[in-house]
């Protein structure tokens, strides 16, 4: 560099090469945006600066290499030779990486620079990598030599390098093309594919929602995506199609066109609509077939059932409703709780929202459930029958039949011989006109019925009658099946309560709800069947063999019998004394951990609370039995029994003599035989000779509501027979039971339950009795100090738990009192405002 800058004369004579120019770019590749054109078009001052440049000065600077073109080419070749001579020296220290393995970096001058690795790092690699590196190095040297021979200009040099790398890649391309594609497919992660298909489904779904008629073919693409092997993609495709179908399904049922309709020429709009409906029905059918097939697979079972339930709930009026109903009704007996609840909610919504399907889906669902019960021999989950409780019937279903029978002409011989009154002759023109008008009205009415979902009164009543007949057919089949099982087991002396008739409890509950709609022809048989199922026997000394039903189910039989009797009181003449006897005996068989207390409270409400004034002997027997029962069980059952006991004492004033604390019984004890608590008939118990000493113990009950109710009942002894004490609870036994059970659950302190594994371990332990010799050999010495410390810590924890429970109870009591005080304040403010308003109005 020093020699070159030695003298100014040499520098002047030296030919200076122009700066390296950028690579050539075709005019087609140059893109000028509209924003740039608008910018320079609006601001011409910026573009004017380019015209101020002196073209001559620029040419002089570029042409200052004053010399022949041969001299320029000679200098350019010398410079390229110097660069080529430097490369081998650099490659001795470093090895160039194959361009296939590492991407090059392009500099500002347009040169491609490859990553290089040192020899030391290269020698540490495996033998396979060494051979590959040597082949790549040899190929790279051959490429460099070719570049030295062919490199005449800088642009040619860059092109030769690119061609060289391409030749290195294209050589094994034919052999490795398939392998490379497989490797690339494997390297693509499942998440990327899932996101890609997810975006594709989103685009297709949005297009369908924006314009369904124009993009109806997108349904085929979505169906093809839902046939993917990936389970996530299939589930996403099913849910996407569900959202689309819920939005685009029309509010009418698409019918198949007849041959005459297809032969008629129609407009383009009608053709477009027909094509849209045809494609929609075809894709909807394929989608339902896909759901039904996937329902059999455990991975897609919940998703498929959810889609079918959503479609049936959204569009119960649309095509292929029968297949959807069949699959949903079949899953009412599913072992999966989530799926079963989902199907039950769907069937309930169909029963409640009959305006969507004009009641046709309701009768179809009831018939399918009836057939399902028949095929499975009444061995189904109770939820499959419990959905019938959501059915709604008009009160005047049977009024139309009676009116039709009244309107029918009576056959009487006196009227048969008489001639009908002569009518005036009508002209033919008037006849034809009237006939045309009547036909036109009938056609209009038929079209309106087809379009609208509202039914006429006659059609609605006919559908409800068919539904009611299918409903009672199912209920009577369950009762008949239970009777047959109970008879067979009673003969074989087999006792297994509640195991072979899971549908009896919801069946009895449904009979109680729809008892006012039962036909009078079946009343006698139904009462006899219920009496037998309740376990009643005519002989009091005989022990009944029929113990296959639980206590709750037998109580439900008594409840249903009374509801049927009360709903048809005028037409039914049945003695229900046997059901009182059975309830009297079932109260002693009740167990709170096994039976349902709500059913017991309902039985007390139906048989004793809602009835008329009871017989004195029977009322006294139930009063004594309920007092004993309240002393034996929990607070919720006790409050229900005490509410019923108080009601019976108020209705039967002579039974208040049982409240007297005489040692030999009440004042009526001399008139009645001795009290027999083991008697099965309440008339033979002699309860009037007893005293309600249980109430004095119930006054000290831990529950405030029970103790206050017991003291309130005891205060009735000092009152006149016509007087009643101040009422504490103005509720029936069922409401009292529910209120107290809810309060008891809310007042429970939160406790951490043991895990299932610990419980299983504890149950699995077996205790082995040790012999005295083994006990003597064993070392049973215990340190007293350690034992005292452990016992102290244990009892300290117990005291802390009891104190915590006491504080929580006080906190709940304080919060309730605060809420009551707030309500009192609000009510007081309202009363003050009302008084002020009244005063203002009075002044006005």
Q: What characteristics describe this protein?
A:
two-stranded antiparallel ribbon, Leucine-rich Repeat Variant, mainly alpha, 844 residues
Can you describe what's shown?
The relative contact order is 0.03. Helix 15 runs parallel beside helix 17 (337-352) and helix 18 (360-375) packs parallel to helix 23. A hairpin with a 5-residue loop joins strand 2 and strand 3 (112-113). The protein has a two-stranded antiparallel sheet. It has a two-stranded antiparallel sheet with strand order 2-3. The chain has helices at residues 8-13, 34-42, 44-48, 55-62, 69-93, 119-123, 127-150, 154-170, 173-187, 190-210, 218-225, 231-248, 259-263, 268-294, 301-314, 321-330, 337-352, 360-375, 383-386, 399-407, 413-416, 428-451, 457-492, 504-513, 523-533, 551-567, 577-589, 597-609, 616-632, 635-651, 694-698, 704-714, 733-746, 756-764, 772-777, 784-843, and strands at residues 94-96, 105-106, 112-113, 116-118. It is an all-alpha fold and 844 residues long. It has a domain at 184-390: Alpha Horseshoe (Leucine-rich Repeat Variant), CATH 1.25.10. The longest helix is centred in the C-terminal third of the chain and has 60 residues, at 784-843.
Secondary-structure topology with pairs:
Elements (H helix, E strand, L loop, with lengths): L7 H6 L20 H9 L1 H5 L6 H8 L6 H25 E3 L8 E2 L5 E2 L2 E3 H5 L3 H24 L3 H17 L2 H15 L2 H21 L7 H8 L5 H18 L10 H5 L4 H27 L6 H14 L6 H10 L6 H16 L7 H16 L7 H4 L12 H9 L5 H4 L11 H24 L5 H36 L11 H10 L9 H11 L17 H17 L9 H13 L7 H13 L6 H17 L2 H17 L42 H5 L5 H11 L18 H14 L9 H9 L7 H6 L6 H60 L1
Antiparallel strand pairs: 1-4, 2-3
Helix pairs in contact: 7-8, 10-11, 10-12, 11-12, 12-15, 14-15, 15-16, 15-17, 16-18, 18-23, 23-24, 24-26, 25-26, 26-27, 26-28, 28-30, 28-33, 29-30, 30-32, 30-33
Subcellular location: Nucleus, Nucleolus
Pfam family, one: NOC3p
GO cellular component, one term: nucleolus
């Amino acid at each position: 560099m020093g020699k070159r800058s030695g003298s100014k004369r040499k520098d002047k004579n030296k030919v200076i090469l122009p700066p390296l120019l950028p690579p050539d770019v075709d005019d087609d590749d140059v893109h000028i945006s509209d924003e740039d054109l608008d910018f320079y078009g609006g601001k011409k001052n910026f573009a004017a600066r380019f015209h101020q440049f002196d073209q001559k000065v620029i040419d002089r600077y570029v042409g200052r290499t004053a010399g022949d073109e041969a001299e320029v080419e000679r200098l350019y070749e010398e410079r390229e030779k110097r660069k080529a001579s430097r490369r081998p020296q650099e490659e001795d220290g470093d090895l160039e990486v194959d361009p296939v393995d590492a991407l090059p970096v392009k500099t500002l001058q347009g040169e491609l620079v490859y990553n290089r690795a040192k020899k030391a790092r290269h020698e540490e690699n495996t033998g396979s990598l060494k051979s590959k590196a040597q082949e790549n190095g040899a190929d790279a040297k051959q490429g460099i030599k070719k570049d030295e021979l062919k490199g005449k200009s800088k642009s040619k040099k860059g092109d030769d390098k690119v061609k060289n790398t391409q030749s290195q890649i294209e050589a094994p391309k034919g052999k490795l093309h398939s392998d490379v594609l497989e490797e690339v497919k494997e390297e693509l992660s499942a998440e990327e594919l899932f996101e890609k298909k997810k975006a594709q489904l989103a685009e297709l779904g949005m297009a369908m929602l924006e314009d369904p008629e124009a993009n109806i073919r997108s349904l085929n693409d979505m169906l093809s995506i839902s046939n993917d092997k990936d389970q996530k993609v299939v589930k996403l495709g099913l849910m996407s199609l569900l959202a689309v179908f819920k939005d685009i399904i029309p509010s009418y049922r698409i019918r198949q066109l007849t041959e005459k309709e297809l032969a008629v020429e129609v407009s383009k709009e009608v053709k477009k609509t027909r094509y849209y409906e045809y494609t929609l029905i075809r894709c909807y059918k394929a989608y339902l077939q896909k759901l039904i097939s996937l329902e059999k697979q455990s991975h897609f079972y919940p998703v498929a059932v959810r889609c079918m339930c959503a479609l049936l709930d959204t569009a119960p009026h649309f095509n292929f409703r029968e297949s959807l109903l069949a699959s949903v009704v079949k899953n009412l007996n599913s072992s999966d709780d989530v799926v079963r609840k989902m199907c039950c909610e769907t069937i309930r919504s169909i029963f409640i929202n009959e305006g969507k399907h004009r009641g046709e889906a309701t009768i179809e669902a009831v018939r399918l459930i009836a057939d399902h019960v028949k095929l499975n021999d009444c061995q189904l989950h109770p939820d499959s029958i419990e959905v019938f409780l959501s059915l709604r019937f008009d009160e005047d279903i049977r009024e139309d039949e009676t009116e039709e029978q009244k309107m029918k002409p009576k056959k009487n011989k006196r009227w048969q011989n008489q001639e009908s009154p002569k009518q005036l002759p009508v002209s033919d023109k008037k006849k034809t006109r009237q006939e045309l008008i009547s036909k036109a009205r009938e056609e209009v009415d038929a079209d309106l019925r087809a379009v609208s979902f509202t039914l006429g009164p006659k059609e609605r009543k006919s559908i409800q009658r068919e539904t009611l007949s299918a409903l009672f057919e199912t209920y009577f089949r369950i009762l008949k099946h239970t009777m047959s099982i109970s008879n067979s087991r009673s003969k074989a002396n087999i006792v297994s309560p509640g195991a072979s008739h899971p549908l009896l409890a919801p069946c009895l509950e449904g009979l109680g709800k729809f008892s006012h709609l039962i036909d009078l022809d079946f009343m006698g048989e139904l009462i006899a069947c219920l009496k037998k199922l309740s376990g009643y026997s005519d002989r009091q000394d005989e022990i009944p063999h029929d113990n296959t039903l639980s206590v709750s189910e037998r109580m439900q039989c008594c409840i249903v019998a009374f509801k049927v009797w009360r709903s048809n009181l005028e037409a039914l003449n049945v003695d229900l004394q046997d059901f009182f006897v059975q309830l009297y005996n079932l109260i002693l068989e009740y167990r709170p951990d096994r039976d349902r207390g709500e059913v017991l409270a309902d039985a007390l409400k139906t048989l004793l609370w809602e009835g008329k004034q009871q017989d004195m002997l029977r009322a006294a027997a139930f009063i004594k039995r309920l007092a004993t029962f309240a002393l034996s069980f929990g607070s919720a059952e006790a409050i229900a029994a005490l509410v019923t006991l108080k009601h019976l004492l108020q209705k039967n004033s002579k039974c208040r003599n049982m409240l007297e604390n005489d040692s030999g019984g009440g004042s009526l004890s001399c008139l009645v035989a001795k009290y027999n608590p083991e008697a099965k008939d309440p008339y033979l118990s002699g309860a009037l000779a007893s005293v309600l000493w249980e109430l004095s113990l119930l006054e000290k009950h831990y529950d405030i509501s029970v103790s206050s109710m017991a003291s309130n009942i005891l205060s009735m002894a000092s009152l006149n027979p016509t007087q009643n004490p101040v009422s504490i609870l103005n509720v029936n036994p069922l409401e009292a039971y529910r209120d107290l059970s809810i309060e008891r659950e809310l007042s429970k302190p939160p406790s951490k339950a043991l895990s299932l594994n610990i419980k299983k371990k504890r149950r699995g332990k077996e205790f082995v009795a040790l012999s005295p010799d083994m006990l003597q050999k064993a070392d049973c010495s215990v340190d007293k100090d350690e034992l005292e410390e452990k016992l102290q810590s244990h009892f300290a924890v117990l005291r802390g738990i009891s104190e915590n429970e006491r504080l929580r109870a006080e906190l709940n009591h304080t919060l309730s009192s605060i809420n009551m005080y707030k309500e009192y304040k609000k009510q007081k403010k309202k009363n003050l405002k009302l008084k002020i308003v009244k005063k203002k109005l009075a002044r006005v």
